[in-house]
Amino acid sequence: MTDAEIAWVAGLLEGEGSFMLGRSKCGDCRYSYARISINMTDRDVIEKIARITGAKQKIFTESNHRPRSKITSTKPIHRLWIDGAIAVEIMLLIRPWMGERRRTQIDFAIAEHRKSAPSEEQKKAQRLYAAKRAWEKMGAKTPEQRREVMRKVWEARWGKKTTNEEVNHTAA
User: Fold this and answer.
1) 86-113 mean pLDDT
2) Which has the closest alpha carbon to 134: 118, 156, 119?
3) pLDDT above 70 for 71
4) What is the average pLDDT value for the chain, to the nearest integer?
5) pTM value?
6) In order of start, what are the domains of the chain with their CATH numbers?
7) What is the pLDDT of residue 73?
8) Residue 148 CA, distance from chain mean position
9) Which residue would you say has higher pLDDT here, 128 or 38?
């Protein structure tokens, strides 16, 4: 990111963002991770921040229904979550630009992320758990089918091709 982009992201997140912990579990493994969350009615701004930060996260869109409100028409809300190591990197980049309250939130999220980061064994268990779920969902029974599913999962998640060695490690 350029200095101007860092400043733009910092300004937007100072006003519209949240710095928090996401929580996850995988079998018996439970851990927390840093999360940046931003909700807006302007999808183009959400797409811009995703592009600038390189976030591969999904942009969620939901209707803003207010059943008790007299407002009959509202704009949809677009949400971007940036999780884990990339969230920590972004937090560290924008921290100098933030106000005191946001810096405190950032410091807490980073400290908790580092404290509860999963061990290598937990990461391996999580990858295997996710792989098994993907195999079941896609009906992969043979090793060849499993490798093909893992290639698709890898490309969808990381946006790049993978080597057979990386696929074989997970699909075995």
Assistant:
1) 92
2) 156
3) no
4) 78
5) 0.63
6) 3-118 (3.10.28.10), 121-171 (no CATH)
7) 46
8) 24
9) 38
Q: Count CB atoms within 10 A of the CB of residue 141.
A: 9
Instruction: Give yes or no for a contact between 21 and 124, defined as CB atoms under 8 angstroms apart.
Output: no
pLDDT digits 0-9 by tens, 152-172: 776 766 555 555 555 455 444
Cα distance between residue 100 and residue 96, in whole Å:
10
Tokens of 86: 């990339």
Residue type, 53: T
Per-residue H/E/C for the chain: CCHHHHHHHHHHHHHHEEEEEEEEEECCEEEEEEEEEEEECCHHHHHHHHHHHCCCCCEEEECCCCCCCCCCCCCCEEEEEEEHHHHHHHHHHHHHHCCHHHHHHHHHHHHHHHHCCCCHHHHHHHHHHHHHHHHHHHCCCCHHHHHHHHHHHHHHHHCCCCCHHHHHHHHC
Predicted pLDDT of residue 39: 87
pLDDT tens digit sequence for 7-30: 999 999 999 999 998 887 666 667
Which of 163, 164, 154, 160 is CA-nearest to residue 131? 154
Q: Which two tokens stand for residue 59?
A: 């942009």
From the list 83, 105, 84, 85, the residue with the least C-alpha distance to 95 is 105
